[in-house]
Write a structure and sequence with these properties.
The structure holds two protein chains of two kinds. Chain A is mainly α. Chain A contains six helices and no strands. Chain B has one domain: Cytochrome c-like domain (Cytochrome Bc1 Complex, Chain D, domain 2, Orthogonal Bundle), CATH 1.10.760.10. Helix content of chain B is 58%, strand content 0%. Classes of the chains: A mainly alpha, B mainly alpha.
Chain lengths: 108, 107
């Protein structure tokens, strides 16, 4: 029984961590909030200061948005946008951008 | 040609193909780059602290963004214990060179 509980707890945790987002919802939100600076797919930033988001790791994108909102990343523009996003919004946006194509790649 | 030679040649050719995907590392960059590789040079690597998530992909990223990110870590505007320590050891020129290495080359 104890083992079962542990397994159940781990599964629950895994579910939370990977709860992931809905890319379709993310696409809609991205068009309203992010697209003007990062491009609708996150692969055509309008300025070199803006990062490419397409193809980036999903959990890293969520972490970045959370950090902007919390002030752990201090950027006046992104703080304003992130402040309007719920955790689900962040998950959805990350699901959308991480699944888009770009030149972003793993490099040693 | 003996079979062994053929295999050796094939292996060498494979090595060449594998290395072709990574840009050559300029010798003056090697020291600084060695700090990045421990985390960003391992495909699928995740941080252990303070939170668990995949470290970002740097290849193909905008060099301007990368330099700004390093400077923000150095100044503490962007909080991350390990990145702050690493960025603190880099000069502006170091940052520009690293950013050019990661962002300057397409896939």
């Amino acid at each position: 029984m104890k083992r079962l509980l542990v397994v159940a707890a781990v599964l629950l945790l895994a579910g939370n961590v990977q709860a992931g987002g809905n890319a379709a919802s993310g696409k809609t939100k991205a068009a309203q909030v992010c697209a003007a600076c990062h491009g609708p797919e996150g692969n055509k930033p309008v300025a070199p200061e803006n990062p490419i988001l397409a193809g980036q790791h999903q959990d890293y994108l969520v972490k970045a948005l959370k950090d902007y909102k919390a002030g752990r990343r201090n950027n006046a523009i992104m703080k304003g946008f992130a402040a309007t996003l719920s955790h689900q919004d962040m998950e959805d946006l990350a699901a959308w951008f991480s699944s888009q194509q770009s030149n972003l790649h793993f490099q040693r | 040609m003996p079979t062994r030679t053929v295999i050796a040649v094939a292996l060498l050719a494979l090595c060449g193909a594998a290395q072709a995907q990574q840009p050559a590392v300029p010798s003056h960059l090697k020291n600084n780059l060695s700090m990045c590789i421990g985390c960003h040079g391992i495909a699928g690597y995740k941080t252990a602290y303070p939170e668990v998530y995949h470290v970002p992909k740097l290849g193909g990223q905008s060099p301007t963004y990368l330099v700004n990110a390093l400077k923000a870590y150095r100044s503490g505007e962007r909080m991350h214990p390990s990145m702050r320590g690493i960025a603190a050891s880099l000069s502006d020129k170091d940052m520009e060179e690293l950013a050019a290495y990661y962002g300057g080359t397409g896939k």
